[in-house]
Design goal:
By secondary structure, the protein is an alpha/beta fold. The chain has 14 helices and 19 strands. The longest helix is centred in the first third of the chain and has 21 residues. The protein binds NADP nicotinamide-adenine-dinucleotide phosphate.
Amino acid sequence: MSDVLRLGLAGLGTVGSSLLHLLERHGNDIAVRTGRPIAVSAVSARNRQKDRGLDLSGLQWFDDPVALARDPGNDVFVELIGGANGTALDSVKAAIGAGKHVVTANKALLAEHGVTLARQAEDAGVSLNFEAAAAGGIPIIKTLRESLAGNSVGRVYGIMNGTCNYILTRMEREGLSFAECLAEAQRLGYAEADPTFDVEGFDTAHKLALLTAIAFGTEIDADSIYVEGISSITTADLEAADELGYRIKLLGVASRTDSGIEQRVHPAMVPKSSPIAGIDGVTNAVAIEADFVGQLMLSGPGAGGAATASSVMSDIADIARGDRMGTFGRPASSLEPYRRAEIRAHAGGYYIRLSVFDRPGAFASIARRMADHGISLESIVQRRRAPREDAPGHPIPEQPQPVILITYETTETAIKEALDGIMKDGHIADSPQMIRIEQFG
Ligand SMILES: NC(=O)c1ccc[n+]([C@@H]2O[C@H](COP(=O)([O-])OP(=O)(O)OC[C@H]3O[C@@H](n4cnc5c(N)ncnc54)[C@H](OP(=O)(O)O)[C@@H]3O)[C@@H](O)[C@H]2O)c1
């Protein structure tokens, strides 16, 4: 058997401590599989005194992850600190500079610096692996990068944020508001005290950016992803979706179009019959449409210490076996500049919910605005509410009634312009709700 592969582990939090437990439990087996014993030789975290329930005796301690990254006493630098810049970036750069392989679970770091770091790793002849960064325990990076190497990918999409999927699932099942479900997710530890990054779609966007680079061979451009979160979704939308045969999911979608690669993160209506519609709670799923394989979907835990450590270990095992793979599945120099397809050119069906004043001419003006922009309606549902009264027997005049429109395929520009016109006509009480319909197969 070869020499021990020595790991320098920076970060002993949720994922780092799980990685130590994993190695403790399966280290011998992994050595047999890879042909090389793997051992953590040194660690770094912020607080040396913290009781982590881990036996760190025999491991060298570094206060500074950058010093750990440079130290010749380890062969692989495992970055499990987090953050796009600062210590995580400095230490990964230092490790590559010292000629070490790097394994990271850090999506923020890669979404911002992935291409530069991949080039540096390639020049240094080392691996930069990140299986855990896109979907926690789901082996989507290897699937795209290696298993589908013989395919041209047309679309990759998925539910990549467990917090959002948990909230939408509970809202749908229990008829609770977004705020109530968010508070419950925070109580259960599924959502951060500041949930903005998750619920407004930015976390999904970081993950999508990484999948896009591998699937389409383009440089990462996380800033050009169109991002919309789930905080505007109401129980009225979920009920209407249910009646119309859809469910609402926060999707990250990257697809090849005539005008470039479209990348978008937003709540989407998905047909109940589609596999992705069946993904509930904190579970994640990523689906791929490719020319030779057709359609496939991987689902599982997108977060959590154990599941994420499982992916980190698979990257380490590759290094132990001597498997080297370009970070994004091809030489970094061959990644093409990202050609962005603008969201206004997006084509698809749309769900629109309007609060329409019950008055003559209102419907005619809505229908005219749609027709003026060449939009055909697949269905119109008026959900009559019992009139509210300001005194018994005296209904409040001109109460708005919810009206749901489902369009056939049209463009985002047409929809936006039609809705602007409808608002100008003054027959609706609130801003319209618009949710894109995602079709499959
Ligand atoms: N948690 C998940 O489910 C999950 C899933 C997928 C990917 N990831 C990614 O995995 C990475 C780690 O996440 P995590 O949840 O394990 O984070 P975490 O629990 O917050 O742990 C972070 C660790 O980094 C250490 N650290 C922070 N700043 C440091 C510094 N300046 N110097 C030295 N050590 C420092 C902390 O030290 P102390 O313990 O002393 O404070 C802690 O041990 C992140 O990039 C995250 O995005 C996490």
